[in-house]
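Format notes (please read before filing issues)

Several people have asked whether sequences and structure tokens are stored in separate files. They are not. Every record keeps both together, in the order shown below: the sequence lines, then the token lines. Line labels are part of the format and must not be stripped during preprocessing.
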Amino acid sequence: MAASPSLPTPVSRLALLTGVTRDERSALAWSFLYFFSLLCAYGLLRPLREEMGVRHGVNRLQWLFSGTFLCMLLAQPLYGALVSRFERRVFLPVVYGFFIACLLVFYAVFRLDRGMTVAVPAFFIWVSVFNLFVVSVFWSFMSDIFTTDQAKRLYGIIAAGGTCGALAGPALTALLVQEVGVPQLMLISALLLGGALVAIVRLLPWATARRGADRAIGGTVLAGARLVTASPFLRAIAGLLLLYVTVNTILYYQQAAVVAAAFTDSASRAAYFARIDFAVNALTVVTQVVVTRVLLTRFGVTPLLMLSPLVVALGFAWLAATPGPLLLASIQVVHRAGNFSLIAPARESLFTRVDRESRYKAKAFIDTAIYRGGDLVVGWCMAAVAARKLPLGEVALIGLAVASIWALLGWRVGRTHDAHLAAAAPQPASATSPAVS
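Then the structure lines:
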């Protein structure tokens, strides 16, 4: 008599649902944990940064963006030198170790009597630099580990790990900020970055197996800018990011003005921003679980690069017709959730087709200097708009135009990338996995 087939286990059911093979599970789990720790650490800090920005003055935000851009310009050659001269196993821990040390410094400063007042600009700028650098380094490392085919199947799951962390971070802030105070949140964030460091150490063997020996990349410290300038593909990715930043900054300034008028104390503002962050990440995780992987594997990156800009454009059109703070907050939630759940996995998968120097240097230049440069330019433009006291409906028309161009460029970049993959030789289904428990 034939033996009855064994019932599928929960793990095998999940593997069937997500398309994860057995030799990918460990690398995927550590990548999930890495991104969770990273965005939970940032999620703890983001509501504090937003509240401090409003406290510093909405009419002075452009100066904070200017300071952030200047710090990005100073950090870029330092990061380029680090990546050029040292192997992954050296420069990755150094980057995260530096940010952990900074958090410990802020912990000490915030415990001083006037620390919370004096350090507001420095903290705002530091968090703005921190979040872009650590996330850019994360995705560069992921493209060392996974192939293009794996990226389509797994990046949505990995991004969901970050979303879970981004959900937990603001929730912890809202729960703990009035109980333990701001300084202790610095220590919790540093501890979470320590967890990310552990994940990096466990993932290094997969990166070596996928891309070969762990060698220094070499090249010049300013190679990122040169690579972006020379490559039409990288320039197009930079254009996508600039259009995203433009929409993001328009919404940021309008939201800051609404919050400054609606709330009078720091705790209420921090709680409001934490609730917005929670809504963003709740919508993100639902989209990642239900939509992202299906769209990526079946239709490629094009729908993911287009969908969010189109929805935001419709939101701006609605806002132009019937301006209001609740609709503005809703557009902000949809915009940010669409970026995290759809655009980010698609955009990061684009980098699996470029060389290692482009993945670390050009990508870091795009994600940091170009991102914050866009913040700077649009921030000063929004300051001019505020000085002219343009109504919300007219500002929404500007956002509508930018979001429409963004959707069109997303379509062009997506079609180009999908055509490149279709013409390329087929890649192995999975990378060789080292014997790591």
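For reference, the curators noted about this record: The mean pLDDT is 80. The domain at 23-422 is CATH 1.20.1250.20 (Growth Hormone; Chain: A;).
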